[in-house]
Amino acid sequence: MRPEVYVVLVAALPVVELRGAIPLGVALGLPPGEAFLLALLGNLLVAPLALTLLPWAVELATRVPLLERLWAVLEARVRLRGEERVQRLGALGLLLFVAVPLPGSGAWTGSVLAVVLGLRRRYALPAISLGVLGAGLLVLLLTGGAVAGLNYLR
């Protein structure tokens, strides 16, 4: 498979998202800007899909005992991570939550948080998208600095 496909697919994965996809793309030989755009594309595909399917999945999970327990654990974890900020700041809080480039604070978790807290999709989707853009820019800067440092050592 081409490196571009790997970057898009890794960016769409939960937990890894673009935080891992941008450095992967650079490590596979892509220019940092191209790795950023491909990772951004892959990660931006997550939010509309998750915001559409999660309410349906939650409804299904509440009907199946095993899934209900799994959902309760996930919901508690997500609430612990970002509920206070999002309740206080609304969509801006969601944007800031997603923009922090740490594992567990990306588009997937932001989408779950939006569904759990009942944020309207028309507010959640732009907030998550702008948060992904912000996180991507931060990771790009960090990756670019790492690449420049490695080139300096050569």
Automatic annotation (TrEMBL):
Membrane among keywords: yes
Keywords noted in UniProt: Membrane, Transmembrane, Transmembrane helix
TM annotation in the entry: 36-58, 89-117, 123-153
Origin superkingdom: Bacteria
One Pfam family named in its UniProt record: Sm_multidrug_ex
Entry protein name: Small multidrug export protein
Species the sequence originates in: Thermus thermamylovorans
